[in-house]
Known about the structure:
- This protein has about 475 residues and is α/β, with parallel strands linked by helices.
- It has 2 domains: about 5-210 and about 415-425, 3-Layer(aba) Sandwich (Aldehyde Dehydrogenase, Chain A, domain 1), CATH 3.40.605; about 215-400, Aldehyde Dehydrogenase, Chain A, domain 2.
- It is built from 15 helices and 18 strands.
- It has a 7-stranded mixed beta sheet, sandwiched between helices. A 6-stranded mixed beta sheet has the order 5-4-3-6-7-17, with helices on both faces.
- A hairpin with a 4-residue loop joins strand 11 (about 310) and strand 12 (about 315).
- Helix 2 (about 25-40) packs antiparallel against helix 5 and helix 4 (about 55-80) runs parallel beside helix 5.
- It starts with a helix and ends in a 10-residue tail after the last helix.
Amino acid sequence: MDPFEDMLRRLREAFGSGRTQEAEFRATQLKGLGRFLEENKQLLQEALVQDLRKMVFESEVSEFSICQGEINLALKNLQAWMKDEEVTKNLATQLDSAFIRKEPFGLVLIITPWNYPVNLTLVPLVGALAAGNCVVLKPSEISGNTGKVLAEVLPRYLDQSCFAVVTGGPKEVQQLLEHKFDYIFFTGSSRVGKIIMAAATKHLTPVTLELGGKNPCYVHDDCDPQTVANRVAFFRYLNTGQTCVAPDYVLCSPEMQERLVPALQSAITRFYGDDPKSSPDLGRIINDKHFQRLQGLLGSGRVAIGGQSDSSDRYIAPTVLVDVQETEPVMQEEIFGPILPIVTVRSLDEAIDFINRREKPLALYAFSNSQQVVKEVLFRTSSGAFCGNDGFMYMTLSSLPFGGVGASGMGKYHGKFTFDTFSHHRACLLRYSGMEKVNSIRYPPYSPQKLRVLLMAMETHSSSCTLL
């Protein structure tokens, strides 16, 4: 017996009724989502502590404020986003109406990860609801406490004829994927992303895949090492390194490594004290499986800072590895933990070549006092996102798209980009019903004169005028 058949039928019937098309209904859903955040913040915070030992500061900055900002932005701009978009016309269609209509896809599936279980669940949901879709939400079973709040409490704030939460693990996801959805949005590992995409292919379902990868961080010799260390350490060890856009490894010269390592030690001590394990500002690894995987990576290169671990507490100290070789395990997979390898290169060209030999990353960082150096790294590489002289501060801008390229993912979201991702952009032309004689130039019998006139009428001219 199919456990999801009745639920999916109910959601499709709700979408077919047209209820989600109206702006008022969408706004009501978004307001309900906002109330859920406001009224259950403490409950969610407690769940984040249980799952990741995530402190209030990090939760406010990286989970709640971002979600609330996305809700506010969508509510403020919903009418404008939904409005038909007028397009340029040619001579043949001057009397007609040509526009792009933003339609909801229908029934969409959102599968979310465990590392930022509020942010990475609710931000896609904002766009899906704003675009007028019915939604099946599948939170990660790994962050089980947060997932329980989402499953048990969130549906009370939304129209349950148009929204459902599915709990469970890989088995339930596989069962869901046997059904046809109109869009699938997935955030997680590349390994699972391939499974999602293969399942979607059977139904020709479009997908957004927000994956990951190894994000390079190039540090030029002209940098102030303490400034770089402060910024890299903050973004590497935030959420205990369990961030898909965190700097995954540093590329620098041997001379810069000698200056950078003591600066990193200074930053880590100032951030987390002499005993980081007792710091209230450092979380823990999500589960034993990930802890064991990360502990195995500590054998790469040489430990210059940290390296301590405690399996009973799922604690791994903020760690820096040096003398790391490209072939070692820590350089073969996304780390997703508080470990920072440093790989030495002889020049900027060698660093860029190192980056370009690997899969395109989700994010790329370059530090230099020279804008020319930063822009050269930007120009000669490709990544989902790029930031010069800092970490993932671009994530605070809803005006910038977030998404990968190549192996790090496909599709984009945040702000209006999320609304557009969950909307079908429908090409519409409403033609004038009269003046049939004008159309005679396109009908047989053909002639060279008809062809010349028709080609002129079909040509689209720029709205701007250039005087030669």
